[in-house]
Write a structure and sequence with these properties.
It contains 14 helices and 9 strands. By secondary structure, the chain is an alpha/beta fold. The chain is globular and about 55 Å long. The structure holds phosphoric acid mono(formamide)ester. Phosphoric acid mono(formamide)ester binds next to helix 5.
Length: 358
């Protein structure tokens, strides 16, 4: 088994993501990730195991006895939530996931309140967190920081797992896990995800959730991916190259209504203007045709679903919120269960939870 201690940073960082995966799995050989950094670490078998574990945790947690059992599973562990970018869902669902498993948490949500303000490097900050905590869940505007920190910690005298909760415009692997979990549950009794058409709409250029989910969907058979965006915000070349390389049926289009007609799932995203290179750049793009409202809802198949990683602005009209096909609220809660599953599996508790008597 490949080990991060046996490869230098420069050599490791230059590897293709699929090759990096082997360096990031648990040493115990169960195939689960130790560090979770990007979507390319998950194949179909792993996705199905994690979704089954999330279902199991969800079920066990229904009874008081079950919930109290879950709280003992990782009661001896501590997790650090290090979020140097704003977050509601990812922060709180990881926090809630830790609470379900009995993990004690600490947090830094603004580097200005940590010793980074005094000039401490991010590397030293993470080494500091690893002195007190057994896992670091981190969100950063910096692409590649989580990966660098994973390598640093694995080569330190106190390695602890890193969980990437969003890295720049690049990846958001746990969001993609919850998106897959939501799709699996949505289509559970209707033949599953295979053969479906997933339509992505909005700011596909800078949406890290789109890159991660697009990759995870390649694990399923005959899933067509349709990307709908203004030309300035269309899906980046690396995502398209990945789909081409895997022989995935895909299309880049500009008409949301036409795309909705063939969609089994519509994945809306907001305009990510926090990444604008000049103030107001996004506001000058005509995004009016990339919003989902009553007219799009009328075109959606009866068993189609609407997803959104959230937060939303006006790209899904509130009149859609109570439609049974609107999955974005459930999607949010699903994030708590799948993150609890991932954390439990990272610490090697998959089998114990699956096989417990609750
Ligand atoms: N989907 C998502 O990452 O939401 P937050 O930014 O609120 O965490």
């Amino acid at each position: 088994m490949a080990k991060l201690t046996e490869i230098g940073w420069d050599e490791f960082s230059a590897l293709p993501l699929e090759t990096k995966r082997g360096y990031l799995t648990r040493a115990e050989g169960d195939g689960m990730p130790y560090h979770t950094l990007f979507a390319q670490q998950f194949d179909r078998e792993l996705l199905e195991r994690l979704c089954a574990l999330a279902n199991r945790i969800r079920f066990i947690n229904k009874s008081k006895e079950g919930a109290l059992y879950l709280k003992t599973v990782l009661a001896h562990r501590r997790a650090m939530l290090y979020f140097s970018q704003p977050s509601s869902r990812t922060f709180l669902s990881h926090l809630a996931a830790c609470q379900i498993l009995g993990i004690t948490t600490g947090s830094v949500r603004d580097a200005a309140t940590s010793s980074e303000f005094k000039g401490e490097t991010k590397e030293d900050s993470i080494r500091t967190f690893s002195s007190y905590f057994d896992m670091i869940i981190m969100r950063s505007p910096e692409q590649g920081l989580a990966e660098k920190m994973a390598w640093e910690l694995s080569n330190s005298d106190r390695p602890v797992p890193i969980l990437n909760a969003g890295s720049g415009k690049d990846q958001h692997p746990t969001q993609a896990l919850l998106d897959i979990y939501t799709l699996m549950r949505s289509f559970e009794t209707k033949g599953g995800i295979d053969g479906r058409t997933v339509v992505f709409c909005g700011d596909l250029l800078r949406g890290r959730t789109v890159r991660s989910l697009s990759y995870l969907l390649t694990n399923f058979r005959d899933v067509r991916q349709v990307f709908v965006a203004p030309p300035e915000l269309h899906v980046p070349e690396d995502v398209v190259e990945t789909l081409k390389g895997k022989g995935v049926d895909y299309a880049l289009v500009g008409d949301l209504r036409e795309a909705v007609k063939e969609a089994d799932a519509v994945y809306m995203t907001r305009i990510q203007d926090e990444w604008d290179s000049s103030k107001g750049a996004s506001a000058r793009i005509d995004t009016s045709r990339f919003k989902f409202g009553a007219e799009e809802l009328a075109l959606l198949k009866p068993d189609g679903v609407i997803l959104h990683p959230l937060p939303r602005r006006d790209e899904i009209a509130t009149c859609c919120d109570h439609d049974p096909r609107a999955m974005y609220w459930r999607q949010m809660r699903n994030g708590m269960w799948i993150r609890a599953a991932l954390i439990a599996a990272t610490f090697g508790h998959e089998r114990a939870i699956m096989d417990c008597g609750y």
